[in-house]
Amino acid sequence: GAGVSQSPSNKVTEKGKDVELRCDPISGHTALYWYRQSLGQGLEFLIYFQGNSAPDKSGLPSDRFSAERTGGSVSTLTIQRTQQEDSAVYLCASSSLPAGQGEQYFGPGTRLTVT
Amino acid sequence: LAKTTQPISMDSYEGQEVNITCSHNNIATNDYITWYQQFPSQGPRFIIQGYKTKVTNEVASLFIPADRKSSTLSLPRVSLSDTAVYYCLVGDLGSSNTGKLIFGQGTTLQVKP
After folding, report:
1. How many C-beta atoms surround the C-beta of residue A15 within 10 A?
2. How distant, in Å, are the alpha carbons of A19, A27, A36, B113 from that of B34?
């Protein structure tokens, strides 16, 4: 069956521009997660949605980052006024179980490069 | 928050058993322990999850001592295709859907012929 998909796969943007990253989770998965992986670094948890709700946004790196999820499905991660330190691979995962339980299915990621 | 610590790298040979340990001294009562495998340019792939004692599936075993301050991923009879980065993940977002999930820095396993 279809896995988690993310778009675009690669994005090059100029410093100061806004970017929007999209995640399509596995159908029926109510839990959705965003992570960031910087070059040569590990995985950094950003935000978790249960359904359309993300009550804890404290993992987002700055107020330039925002995320939303509509219809309990597609999620978008928006970065405003991009900076070079935002360059990373942004990974999305979904799960049928909530709150970090069970298996998370990861997408292939969006590689963001800020020039 | 639980801070997780793993060895940066490990070497092994085909056919050997590999054990990778993750330390999480500040693990909270409700935190799960999960291990993922990641190949270059791919998203992580789930290996195994546990809460306490021992868990085994078709690809690995996870050993968790009673104090839960560490966990050990055991890969039996590794092959060249097991060369990858292995991450432990500790956390629980709870019924309030708040909190964080903390990944270790990853262990690069190199399997040699």
Report:
1. 11
2. 31, 23, 18, 28
Determine whether the interchain pair B49/A103 forms a contact, defined as Cβ–Cβ distance below 8 Å.
Answer: yes
CB atoms within 10 A of CB A58: 10
Radius of gyration of chain B (CA): 14
Do residues B103 and B88 lie in contact, with contact meaning Cβ atoms separated by under 8 Å?
A: yes
Sequence letter at residue B62: L
Question: What is the token pair recorded at B66?
Answer: 């009673």
Res A21: pLDDT: 98
- Partners of B103 on chain A (C-beta within 8 Å) are 35, 42-45
What six digits make up the tokens of B10? Answer: 């490990």
Q: Do B101 and A100 touch (CB under 8 A)?
A: yes
**Tokens in use for A102?**
């069970």
Q: Give the number of C-alpha atoms closer than 13 A to the C-alpha of residue B16, restricted to the C-beta side.
A: 15
Q: Show the low-confidence residues of chain A (pLDDT under 50).
A: none
The more confidently predicted of residues B54 and B2 is B54
Token couple for B54: 């021992």
Where residue B72 falls (left for φ over 0; alpha for ψ -120 to 50; beta otherwise) is beta
| CB within 8 Å: B95 and A56 | no
